[in-house]
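hey can u check if this looks right to u? its 280 residues, i copy pasted from the old doc so theres a chance i mangled smth
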Amino acid sequence: MNEHLHTALRLAAAGVPVLPLRAGKAPFGNCRSCVGNACGGRPNMKTPGPCSCPGVCHAWAAATTDPDVLTSPAWSAAWQRAVTVAYHPGAAGLTVVDLDDAAAVDWARATLPATRTVPTTRGEHWIYQGTMTSHNGVRPGVDIKSTMAYARYLGPGTGTVTALPDTVRALAVKTPAPIGPAPHTAVTVPARAGGGGCPHRTPVFLERGIAMAVQRITQATSAVHATVYGAFLAVLSTHGRCGCLTDTHVARLFTAAQAKGETARHCVEAWANARAALGM
């Protein structure tokens, strides 16, 4: 049996979804039926697994624990060309802190709690129990690979896997630049009307604003965190001082953001950052 397939089947039996990587440590390209995601694709899904085609398609989303899929003719051909095995950490309930060089490793040893470590070509993978959204370049030489990402399998490593710490989650929380106002343009906020009355024309105005913000978040295909922040900022700049926003409205925004992969903590922090930007 092919060495990479043997490794993949062993990992799959342990509940770790796997996929082959070709030369360049990249996933295999989509099959003809899935080129350009014509099939609907899986890249925007949050669960692993190929689409209905039999090919090794859609990068991280192709990762599977099904031995029948892993040994199917299409996958067997891919294993013959594979240079290594990868896995989807998030689907296995894991987060990989990818430390790309010695400086990053030194930083991790001084900053992060000990966990299982795996040597890489130039650095180390630190593996934690727990999932989060994946982010590249959270600091020099450090990437986070968890949901909707793949990591190379480089061996079992040493040490005991420990719980994902808030220190790692905090690395992915950044305050993006506000979306909408041009640089150096002041953001205007409606003044609170005398006696606390709402200055807007009708409740429909607020409902339309919330619906547009939810749609903006839902349709985001990239830079989701920045899009969420921009939507929060837009809602707050229009409705944040008049007292018409309710917990129900905020919950709708947070629910839309979490459906795109944002954590509850990220939502709270993005909301707080937007309020701070508007001086609230």
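Residues 175-197 have pLDDT under 50 and may be disordered.
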